[in-house]
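Sample A.
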Amino acid sequence: MVFLGHNVRMSGSQTQTEPEFGHSRPPRFRAAESVARALEGWFPRHRRKLPWRENRSPWRTLVSELMLQQTQVSRVEERFESFLGLFPDARAMTEAGEDAVVAAWEGLGYYRRARLLHAAAVRICEVHGGLVPDSIDALLALPGVGRYTAGSIASIAFGLRAPIVDGNVIRVVARLEAVDATADDPSLVARCWDRSEAMVEVATSPGVLNEALMELGATVCTPAAPACDRCPIRRECAAFKTEDPSAIPRPKRRPVRQEVHLHTVVLRRGDRVLLRQRPPEGIWAGLWELPSLEDVARLDLPAIESGFDFRIVDLRPLETFKRLLTHRAVHFHVYEGSTRIRRGHWCDQSAASGLAMAKPMRSLMDRRVWR
């Protein structure tokens, strides 16, 4: 199966465009067969024992791939089985509803993925009778599934000859051919899709090969201090012959973080506090929080008191802290105040525990509200 042209991969909250090869397709990958054979022989003996590799099913593979986008393996490993216990198949997830999926996703970050996973489950039920589809085109039509995710599911769950490219694969291929480029250089990404396709076409087991490529990048061909002495393809690797294999590829440019100031107010009524749902777009979209005002700078007390659509009085500061996200530095300025308002969602600890919140907000409430 040939994958050329312009493709879009959803990764966390970002959309990445995979460039087309056009007339600049790289030279033929002559080492494709030897590399594929070496990796397929290496993987069964050296793979990590991860929950989504046990009791395999297309649904478990789909869920794991969405979870692993922009989230560390160790965190997903901790949460995977409990999450699948709540949503063992697409129909169970559809019937539970989006809010339940987002709440169960708490702590994994990039909550848009939870909504996309639920939307994919709905489509699987409506179009495919509750079963994850086994064709590339049908997988690509699922919300949140781009070229990489479709290739991973197709090869691992169904044995199709579909290539994959993620950060680990880019690093492995760049070092194999000692490509002098940044990891996000479009020409390098295009070369990696070409090389991945060449290898999967000659593989005995496409799924094993693709998992081996990712595993090699995650455990051996790491960004810093690669363990070249343990690499099964070092004889084919051009970077291995250089003085510093870790210098390939060159690192991506670090994103410039936007400074955000979140002014959060604790408002009590007996054993309940007022909670609000964030807007459907932007940071922590759709999650629940204590009433908050967002600004590019810190606001003074009169601006905070007058910034809500209801009156707040007796405002006093509690604490200030900062959390770093990929693209934002969020400064939390926490206050306690009083209000006579009765409308809105006044929740006790039990009710609040069932609402999806960003991890910093949940930690703040545990520390300041339910003390």
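Sample B.
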Amino acid sequence: MKKINQLKVKAASSSYNIYFGENFITNFSLKKLSDAKEILLIFDSKLPISSLKKVQTFIKKSKPSKFESFKFVANEKNKSLETAERILEKLIDSKFSRDSLIVSFGGGITTDISGFIASVYLRGIDVMHIPTTLLAQVDASIGGKTGVNSKKFKNMVGAFKQPLAVMVDTYYLKSLSKRHITAGYSEIIKHALIDDKKLLLRLEKFQGSFKTRKNSIELVNLIKISSKIKAKIVEQDEEEKSVRAHLNFGHTFAHAIESVQSFKGLNHGEAVGVGMLCAAKLSLLLNKLTIKEYDRVRKINKKYKLPTELPSDCEPQKILKAMELDKKSKNSNLRFIVLDGIGKAEIVENIPEEKILNSLKI
């Protein structure tokens, strides 16, 4: 059997394992995780048939009495209440019980909407994630944040729902485009910048490719280290009352950029890349980061081919307006996560508008 590493996440509401490895899913027993006899697979229609068959085999080996699938085009437009309603109607029409299981198979959009469905159907059923993008493997599938988009903003409707388990199989990354791999590195970089100087050093040395066996092993290690950082923060603050907000480093800017572009420009990982650079610039303006440290953030973005400037259609005033409408404001005050040096983050509020606008000049 392929080597499988494990990481235990001990959140306040529940504990679960994240399993890491390469091409191990079909040899893994679902019965070790769940006795569910009714299973709904929610998957991204863009996934290769060969990948889908592996997961179908994995599920069928548990011999469920009921096994159905919901296929959708996983994009920001379809991460909506309308799609959620279609999935809920399928569960209702097929008479899925409270003891059923949802298995999500796809990227962050798929894990987000699947978790949301699991949190509301019959007031809560189990969900297990098999993330297929690097971004989902290190971020979206871990920690229990679920949600769908409103017509104007990301993740405005959602709940906290910890998964039964997360299966991180790097085999599925081989079908990704370079652009989607790049998007995933943004979240690993984020975890390094807010919590782990040593991880940043490893990223600076890593070649960013997993075509060789050595690099494949190192990628699994990077994913595990990154996941461990997120798990540690989630264990301290499951529902984002305090320190979990640090995981939003770069995201206040990123969500505003995505909103201004109507989710049709940069993908989420790319927007986070630019957002982290803006947040680092704000840290510099607040004298919490040196110019040398700011340049280091810019260089790591450039190394992993993340954007290092704002898109031409994102005027600073438009971004500021979008920020003010985003859910990360508190009591009408904008909140930002800034770096207090590399490897440490903090929350700041009441930032003068001029400084915010200047932080967008990267």
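B remarks: The chain has two domains: 5-176, 181-362. The chain has a mean pLDDT of 94.
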